[in-house]
Amino acid sequence: MSNVTALRKPVEQPVWLSPEQVCERVPGMTKTILTDMRENRRGPAYYKPSQRTVVYLESEIDEWVTASRVQTRGEGSS
Predict the structure, then answer these.
(1) Residues 4, 24: Cα–Cα separation, whole Å
(2) Engineering a disulfide at 58: which of 15, 35, 45, 49 sits with its beta carbon 3.0 to 4.6 angstroms away?
């Protein structure tokens, strides 16, 4: 019998962040700004597992920040 479990990659568990943790991770972000973004359906995607709970996926916060990259005039020129 082969050892099939040894061939499986470990499954990465999602890392959930509270609004406070998002503010710690993103410089300049505040709970007020984050709340305003949610209320106006802007900003990073979020999840509401209960009426009073809001959480964010760490990987989606990173993607959201990365997507906001602004190319400057000096980039790409030699």
Answers:
(1) 41
(2) 15
pLDDT in tens, 1-14: 555 566 777 888 99
Separation between Cα atoms, residue 22 and residue 29, nearest integer Å: 8
| Residue 4 DSSP code | G
Q: Rg for the chain (alpha carbons), in Å?
A: 18
Q: Domain map of the chain by residue range?
A: 14-67
Going from the C-alpha of 69 to that of each of 45, 64, 73, the distances in angstroms are: 17, 9, 13
Q: Which two tokens stand for residue 33?
A: 């700004």
Token representation of residue 40 = 């106006």
The neighbour count for residue 17, using CB atoms within 10 Å, is 19
